[in-house]
Fold these 3 entries.
Entry 1:
Amino acid sequence: MGKNLVQKIFESHLVRGRLEPREDIAISIDQTLTQDATGTMAYLQFEVLGIPRVKTRLSVSYVDHNMLQTGFENADDHRFLQTFAAKYGILFSKPGNGICHQVHLERFAKPGETLLGSDSHTPNAGAMGMIAIGAGGLDVAIAMGGEPYYLKMPEVVLVRLKGRLGPWVSSKDIILEILRRLTVKGGVGKIFEFGGSGVKALSIPERATIANLGAELGATTTLFPSDKQTLEFLKAQERERDWIPLQPDPDARYDQVIEIDLRKLEPLIAQPSSPDRVTPVREAAGKEVKQVCIGSCNNSSYMDLMSVAKILKGKKIHSNVSLTITPGSKQVFEMIARKGALADLIQAGARILESACGPCIGMGQAPSSDAVSIRTMNRNFQGRSGSPDDQIYLASPYVAAACALRGIITDPRELGQKPPRVPMPRKFLIDDSMILLPSPDPEKVAIERGPNIKPLPTRAHLEDLIEGKVLLKLGDHITTDHIIPAGARVLPLRSNIPAISEHLFERLDPDFFKKAIELRGGFVVGGENYGQGSSREHAALAPMFVGIRAIIAKSYARIHRSNLINFGILPLTFKDEKDYERIEQGNQLRIEKIRDRLQANGSLTIQNVTQGSAFEVSHGLNQREIEMLLAGGLLNYTRLSA
Ligand code: MIC
Ligand code: SF4
């Protein structure tokens, strides 16, 4: 029986289990990446493991999120990360070198290898034919310690592309079309493997746009073959030696097949406030636009920005529009500068931002009240931009450029017959001077810990009885941005759990933290896809810190469910969804004999003390997860089994 590409890479990394859908497996990890907003926690956790040097082939620590230095906090975190990397054998990508996913694609992603990253858009590197998975920081810490990564073998979906994209239609529209069809939970438990004749014409940056946004489907990852395009890109990055060809067998089997005829696609746009609210641009056309943001880890490549510069060259953006440009990396930044494209963007009226996440995560550039903002990014969850009533639309650089010129939502096909041509450069500008190598004398390196770096909160083993109030009852698709917001105010507290916990659920209930502390914890009830979006483990650490021991929801997003387990919080699901309807905020709940029931792998009964009733919940935990929970989380579990 022929193998698909996912099976081939998993097979060469399989440590435990069988490669059948939904089987528990463990794979070895070749590379890891962290960014500063999740990295500080990941490294504090790695430190607890007591291992002198990382055991991975390559680990890179990036600084790209917490770049506004309005106080000492972010700069302190950067110093901690730099000294930590030097001591423990990790490459350190300095602030200014670029956004983790773009830099990793340029300099490190390698066909056939595995990458685990503490950021949900790690699958970006799947464009290079590698298995790249987003996870919580603790999972990444454990992988740096040489342990395999555990997951349920996902189903493999073949996305068969045929034909070629028409003028002004871009790879962003391919993934927006998939989001339109499958929604933000359509990819949970799945890997999307791209194939078909239409793949051949897509360059690596175009593939990365798709793989990156695959995270919004809830997918485990997205994977492309390694072919001529891969070789061409690696050659241009002076990394030809990293290339191997990788294709599925001709008779490979897939669990599902999706077909997309590229000729039929048109420019698309995701409307506020979910990446799957996709419609043709022409249907949203005419709305007044006040802000356009081009860049982020999506669509910030050299080719993306060159094409925007060519569209804007010699023109002026609309007087009502604020346009920002974020080059994805120093490589991109310097190349557009040397080519003169940067000057074209500046003359057109663009505001140039540093190579960092910036507006994408609300680190500046919050739009004006109720304004329509067109962004080439990957997330438009309400309020993420920093303005509570934001109207964020997601679209390609072509659409963004057209909107910046006209000041209204505009189908880029109105700009002319064809977009300007931007070929792949034969050579990218290679300068790795902002990637620091680890110290050859690690014992001499002292780790700098400013006052913002607080010790890791710990937790004892799981209680046998959990009792408390339903502190919050929520609907479907609660994102980790709802649970722990990011943005300029909260992000600097990522290495300080007591302080960040004060922001827990603040956008949904400003008194949540006070209530949880007074009542010493309680329960949170959620709907479908609870915890979608970011990999931030603070969305589990902060609940743990305030004493929450169980969440009850209809279903969970993959990374958040793992994070809950990692920090000893039970991710329970309703057996009968009517029980979700019955339960009310403020109800007193009680779960008894938890340890015995889990040890016997049985379901749990929740007594609703207020209503005088009881209902059953399932946990769906495997044996390893049960043991982790009983131990009070992954760190305790790992130390016990060491
Ligand atoms: C995001 O896009 O939400 C982030 C910020 O990059 C997160 C990571 C984080 O919260 O630090 C992600 O995608 O995992
Ligand atoms: Fe940064 Fe935004 Fe990409 Fe997250 S999605 S890594 S915040 S640019």
Entry 2:
Amino acid sequence: MAVLVTGGLGYVGSHSVKQLVERGEHVINLDNLIFGHKQAACGSEVIIGDIGDRALLRDIFSKYDIDAVMHFAALADVPESVADPRKYYDTNVAKSLALLDVMLESDVKMMIFSSSAATFGDPQVVPIPEDHPKNPTNPYGRSKLMLEEILREYERAYGLRAISLRYFNASGADPSGEIGEDHNPEHHLIPIVLQVALGQREQVSIYGTDWPTKDGTCVRDYVHVSDLAQAHLLALDALRNGCQTTEYNLGNGNGYTVMEVVRTAENVTGREIKTVSADRRPGDPAVLVASSEKIVKELGWKPKYPDLETIIETAWKWHSTHPNGYE
Ligand code: UDP
């Protein structure tokens, strides 16, 4: 029995693969290497290829006895999705439909899907529960919501069961220091802040200092990537035990402002981190904080690294030992 992981050489994917392999799962890791890193394989069986390649998918499903798919492979750059929505609907929706087609042809009927807090848009209440209205403010969030809705319909029509996991701000790195975050270009706050601490950037631009928050900077719910990985394993177990299609939010329920992240990173690194005020970034909501009670209650999810300081410590361990990422 094997699990097919798509995009398993990327950030959240590789951390999940590591935990799957550690508990003895046979992992087939399909990645096109656009954002993935070969060095992040963590003992999985890597196949280089694209999720839109039906012939390749048919080969994989006929060669291996796959019971479930963890589907991480996607594009995830919000501003790019606004500039080039076609690319996002093609990769995140159309290619996912190809994957689902071949799963159904092969009678593989369980999927864990990487969704996002971007499916909600501007929150009307925080912490945000799963049934909060969905009004994505960009094509990236809409592409993720579309797949969630498609997965609901595929359960009714074809009996394919899926769990969609909506990540809030994935951050940190495996505590071993062996794998971590390596995006190029990097737009996420914590790696950028740590690049300033490393002297690789002069300063961090703060996107808006007049938001209606306690210090005027945006509030986000940072969740450790290894805790996200743990949720994927719990979701796999739940599907194997017969659970029906559903969605779960994944965050810690604690919001931190951008300036709190900078100050915590200064404490962790012992270095000064220079900031400069900049314009608001289009599409940024002021506050995004998850309610994750549903997955805690239903699947027993228990984050091991919920506090911001530990999250940044693990990220710092990775960035300070891999200043140029995987290279
Ligand atoms: N942010 C910032 N400067 C940066 C990068 C991010 O001020 O160089 C802010 C961004 O506006 C948001 C928060 O930090 O409020 C987290 O941004 P990130 O891109 O890490 O994640 P997002 O919340 O957009 O998914």
Entry 3:
Amino acid sequence: MITPRSAATPPSSPAVRKAVVPAAGLGTRFLPATKATPKEMLPVVDKPAIQYVVEEAAAAGLDDILMVTGRHKRAIEDHFDHAFELEQALAAKGDTVRLDAVRDPARLADIHHIRQGDPLGLGHAVLCARRHVGDQPFAVLLGDDLIDPRETLLSRMLEVREQHAGSVVALMEVSPEQIHLYGCAAVEPSADAGVVRVTGLVEKPPREHAPSSYAVIGRYVLDPAVFGVLDRTPPGRGGEIQLTDALQELATHDIVHGVVFTGLRYDTGDKADYLRTVVRLACERPDLGPEFIAWLKGFVAALESPGHEDGETLAA
Ligand code: G1P
């Protein structure tokens, strides 16, 4: 039973320390690359996508991270563990740069893993974290959404939770053609700049039924009340237990805010966006950028030159 709260309720929320990272999806959009490799381990330049997500959580002060994984996800566990032989070999060579790169993932936070068992949807994956999270607010970060490391979205969401209690979702305005790919929020203005009150949510609506152009992107700060709701949430869209459906119910009893994000987000679950992400981040890397950009310029010039469609070789 959820106790109704008014917007004027003084915040009583303890600091958020735990993050949940659902990582049990099959990654079918990237087959065959994801046949034996979890999609979360696909490299974005030279780090697996999921490491960016864990780094983002750690940068926002979350020091306890629970990965909700599935079968064939051993590589994720190994990545965030020590690699004894590799570390010894690098130490023996005095290769401290690579040694740090190998050790960093295990040092980011206390990382725990549980398995989802049956892939019953995102809501179910979050429900699997119930025992680990306990009666505390917590963050959820979806691995397909990379938020640029220079952004402070998650910290802002944690502030909103601290100020208002309840739950907080990240929202981004998208075009009507895109809204069916996301959870969509009905919103009202709030007194805080860049923050809205969420009055309803619907998972992947057709554009004619979308209550707004605000899409839910993969960052949430949730009140533990969500677990009780998820427990009785029936399968929704796609026959899966949807987190959006639980948040829709929560929004009718409790406070749900949305932080409107206008910064850089990369959808690495989409092939074209994945490629754009790798290129953009590679260009921005001081060690790779200058050489890569020079090559890229030549490549694009060759693409634009007349005749390349006739099979001319592009920039080497
Ligand atoms: C999930 C959520 C959806 C949200 C999206 C953000 O969908 O169910 O509400 O908008 O993540 O990336 P998925 O992309 O996993 O199908």
